[in-house]
Write a structure and sequence with these properties.
Blueprint (H helix, E strand, L loop, with lengths): L1 E5 L5 E4 L3 E5 L17 E9 L4 E7 L3 E8 L1 E6 L4 E5 L2 E6 L4 E6 L7 E8 L9 E6 L10 E4 L15 E7 L4 E5 L6 E8 L2 E3 L2 E3 L4 E5 L3 E6 L3 E8 L3
Antiparallel strand pairs: 1-19, 2-3, 3-4, 4-11, 5-10, 6-9, 6-11, 7-8, 7-10, 9-12, 13-14, 14-21, 15-20, 16-19, 16-21, 17-18, 17-20
């Protein structure tokens, strides 16, 4: 097993007034040659968008884009005809494929929205762009992994154009939980949304992350109530 620790305080940052961003990997004006990607996970941004703020229409292609709101709501529109408000408890995926344009705005004038946005390189290029979202019951992730993004129909999750899987859990203090890879040779980027956990002798606090690879499974222990996101991706 090999690991890469990413402490929350070591992330790249940007403050545009309406947008406060934290970058786990190089993005926009933040560039760190040692933090470009983890396997095929290219972007993981922890964004807070102020009331009334947002990203105007802009293009994407050849990327799988997953948005996970943590608090507040976000208005999405795209050139596939997709249009919806996503909120905490929802997960959205957009396969940009051969090309798509979209915009994202905070529809609230006062309440900020905090979200994770992740970009994964696709398995097949130039597919027809597609958009999907779903509301997941958080009760189904208590002390177990809830699969929210997967290419496998049996996982009953949002489909992704890659051998990748996203899973969420709410782990109670003192409980342990094992993650088993869905695909041989993949790595897992584990993010602590809230709380704190340990993996072997590595302690992780709120918004810390841990890249785990060269293993098919690992076990974490919650040192306090914790919420976690596991992003399994091919390493090559």
């Amino acid at each position: 097993m090999k690991t890469i620790v990413q402490k929350a305080a070591e992330r790249g940052t940007a403050d545009h007034g309406w947008l406060k961003a934290n970058y786990y990997f190089s993005f926009s004006q933040y560039h760190n040659p040692e933090k470009v990607r983890f396997g095929l996970l290219r972007v993981l941004n922890d964004d807070t968008v102020a009331g009334g703020g947002g990203f105007p229409t802009h293009p994407h292609d050849s990327m799988e884009i997953v948005t996970i709101p943590l608090s507040g709501t976000l208005q999405h529109k795209d050139s596939t005809g997709g249009q919806a408000v996503i909120k905490a408890g929802d997960v959205q995926i957009m396969s940009a494929g051969s090309g798509v344009q979209h915009s994202e705005f905070n529809p609230s004038a006062e309440e900020a929205v905090n979200l994770f946005q992740l970009w994964v390189f696709p398995k097949e290029r130039n597919i027809t762009p597609r958009y999907d979202q779903r509301t997941f019951d958080s009760k189904d992730r208590i002390n177990q992994w809830q699969i929210v993004v997967s290419p496998n129909e049996a996982d009953n999750a949002l489909w992704i154009n890659q051998d990748a899987r996203f899973a969420l859990t709410k782990l109670e203090a003192g409980k342990s939980l094992t993650y088993q890879n869905a695909f041989t040779g993949n790595g897992v980027y584990l993010v602590v949304i809230n709380g704190s956990v340990k993996m072997n002798d590595i302690s992780l606090e709120k918004r810390d992350a841990l890249g785990i690879y060269d293993t098919d499974s690992f076990t974490i222990i919650a040192t306090e109530n914790a919420e976690l996101l596991a992003v399994e991706v091919p390493m090559d």
